[in-house]
Amino acid sequence: MAEAVIQTEKLTRKFGSFTAVDELSFSVAAGEIFGFLGANGAGKTTAMKMLTGLLAPTSGKATVAGFDVYRQTESIRRSIGYMSQRFSLYDDLTPRENIRFFGGIYGLGSSELREKGERLLESLDLKEAADTRLVALPLGWKQKLAFSVALLHEPKLIFLDEPTGGVDPVTRRRFWDMIYEAADRGVTVFVTTHYMDEAEYCDRVSIMVDGRIAALDTPEELKKSFGAETMNEVFIQLARPAKRGSKSIDS
């Protein structure tokens, strides 16, 4: 079995008397595309903040890229890529300026950054738009650029937080082709999405309900266990525990 790039044990976060994330225990293997799903308020954003070093856990254990989430948050942030639904880029900068800015944050030297930046612009067919302000570019181009910039420093692991929100189905499909290419290169992908069809593209899927992992398995095994034809049907059943009972799947 591949090494675990993410490993958690009873990872918990409380805000006063409210438990937002309740004893999460799971692992993500190197090169895996891991879907992290849940309705708004399920706790997935809080969990991701803990894993990316932005929020300290209340209790439990976790390592990300081999670093401890309590003591080595700076090392975690240097070792991961991150892209949000907002694409994590600056609209008032050009593609070239965004590459230089974020490459500098990631610690790339000037010569390496110049070489990688030009190669990136060419691979994305953005050479002609390299000096156009990002606000003027189509969403699909922004999306591809943001993903590529998040991988500029060649991290082991990338976190994608609702990365395909607001784009059309064709563009979403093309973006997933980029995810597959990254995974084929050994990059581990941790992705949240509210599009249930995208859950089908993941190697394994975790579904959170009320701060806990209610189900974790491959899409095919989840559908089989819940007698469902689609991941959307699985999600609906888990979101209505009173009608289904307390059944869950152990990871």
From TrEMBL:
Which SMART domains does the protein's record reference?
Answer: AAA
Q: Which organism is it from?
A: Chlorobaculum parvum (strain DSM 263 / NCIMB 8327)
Alphabetic keyword roster: ATP-binding, Nucleotide-binding
SUPFAM superfamilies, sorted = P-loop containing nucleoside triphosphate hydrolases
- What is the protein name for this chain? ABC transporter related
Domain ABC transporter residues, every copy: 6-235
GO molecular-function annotation terms? ATP binding; ATP hydrolysis activity
